Amino acid sequence: MTSKPAKLFALALMAGILAIDQISKWAVVENLQPETAYPVIGDIFRLYLVRNPGAAFSFGTSATIVFSFIQMAAVVVCIYLALRNTSTWAAWPIGLIGGGAAGNLTDRIFRSPGGLHGHVVDFFSFGSFAIFNVADAAITVGVILYLIYAFFVEPRQRARATEEPEEVTVSE
């Protein structure tokens, strides 16, 4: 993929994740009762609507505005990286992390109580592990892909680029 398609892919992925996240949250808020379990696969996987003012595992519930600014920074950084991106591999984590951060930031801005203090809508529940949403899943997958890229893909690409080509001999 050349530079321009990689940039566009990262930005499109960000927009797509944001849209899927917000549509899924809208559907859940409109159709489910808060704090009521809706089994999908017994107790292993269920839909369970909660509003989370904090971060993962409801950590930092009194620091909602701090998380809002962190998410704003993440969105800005991901847009910047997307516009500079030339790699298909890098486009995936940029788009996933940026789209996820934008999805949760949208909740913080527009959901009650609003104004960077809004509570994030979470609804996927796996056993007693955690309750999360599409944005959270996208951020997690994006971070995993970034780590794979940073530790395995990019070093190999750099090594290939620095290898000197073999000498070609021309016989007379």
UniProtKB/TrEMBL annotation:
Residues at the catalytic site: 122, 136
Keyword 4Fe-4S listed: no
Signal peptide: 1-19
Keywords: Aspartyl protease, Cell membrane, Hydrolase, Membrane, Protease, Signal, Transmembrane, Transmembrane helix
Topology with respect to the bilayer: Multi-pass membrane protein
Known role: This protein specifically catalyzes the removal of signal peptides from prolipoproteins.
Protein name: Lipoprotein signal peptidase
Organism: Corynebacterium falsenii
Underlying gene: lspA
